[in-house]
Design brief:
Blueprint lengths: L2 E5 L2 E3 L5 E8 L6 E8 L6 E6 L6 E3 L7 E6 L4 E6 L8 E9 L6 E2 L3 E5 L2
Parallel strand pairs: 2-11
Antiparallel strand pairs: 1-3, 3-8, 4-5, 4-9, 5-6, 7-8, 9-10, 9-11
Length: 118
Amino acid sequence: QADLVESGGGLVQPGGSLRLSCTGSGFPFGIYAMTWHRQVPGKERELVAAINSAGSMTTYADSVKGRCVISRDNVVDTVWLQMNNLKPEDTAVYFCAAMPEGSGTARWGQGIQVTVSS
């Protein structure tokens, strides 16, 4: 059974950092682009960052550009989102997702809460 499990969320003060991890299993992780999304109640889920299957291309939402870095290691089937200089508006449930670069089915993790508050 295909699965994505996020970890590393929690409560952090403004200006702090968090590193989210997402580990995949049960599917060929290395041929999927990986993405991080976030959602707050009452709003649509938004893309935060994406990385292609090879790890050679990344893209970021304007709201996090310069503060976040997405990376991956296909040997351990894991993608990370390093978030720095966190702001209260970064508070959300963060989801990782595996997006097929060709045909296939997108896979989603269950999400993890990130709260930025003093």
